[in-house]
Amino acid sequence: MAIDTILLAVGPMDTVRAEELADTVLEIADPLDASVVIGHAFTADEYEDIYDDLDLDARVDDVDPDEVARRRSPVGDLADIFEDAGVDYEIRGALGDVSTKVVDMAIDVDADRMVVGGRRRSPAEKAVMGSVSQEIILQAPCPVTYFRDLDVME
């Protein structure tokens, strides 16, 4: 199976490990000349909490998810890294249930591989609060590389 498109799904917690995530993606994308989709999904509540910080006037019903994604950390840093590496990339945003929207995004871009980050949580925390990364992995339409950073905590 050829790898033509890699979806790197990120969230605001990934800011501290953006370089490591980019390196993980570049290990695959660069030698295979694959394109990268930097995907950032967010909920309506998350958007309402941050739209002023992003210098956007639109309320959640009128928002362009791609524009929000472009302005959220760590998307800009990742775009710069892929640009410098000469790797084709695009930025996609989605509004709704994060795990569902990331899986939908993978289907929409016909991703051949996904890279997602996660953080250390106890089994009890996962049972009570769920795990977005775990849900993405279980529903993904393609193989997933899980980047676990033990230093990233809630």
Textual characterization of the structure:
Pfam families: Usp (PF00582). InterPro entries: Rossmann-like_a/b/a_fold, Universal_stress_UspA, UspA. Residues 4-146 form the UspA domain. Belongs to the universal stress protein A family. It comes from Natronorubrum daqingense. With 154 residues, the protein is α/β, with parallel strands linked by helices. The protein has one domain (5-149): HUPs (Rossmann fold). It is built from seven helices and five strands, in the order E-H-E-H-H-H-E-H-E-H-H-E. It has helices at 18-32, 44-50, 65-71, 75-85, 98-108, 123-129, 132-139, and strands spanning 5-10, 35-42, 89-95, 113-119, 144-149. The chain has a five-stranded parallel beta sheet with strand order 3-2-1-4-5, with helices on both faces. Strand 1, helix 1 and strand 2 (35-42) form a beta-alpha-beta unit. Helix 1 (18-32) runs parallel beside helix 4. It is globular, with a radius of gyration of 15 Å. The termini are far apart. Residues 124-129 have low confidence and may be disordered.
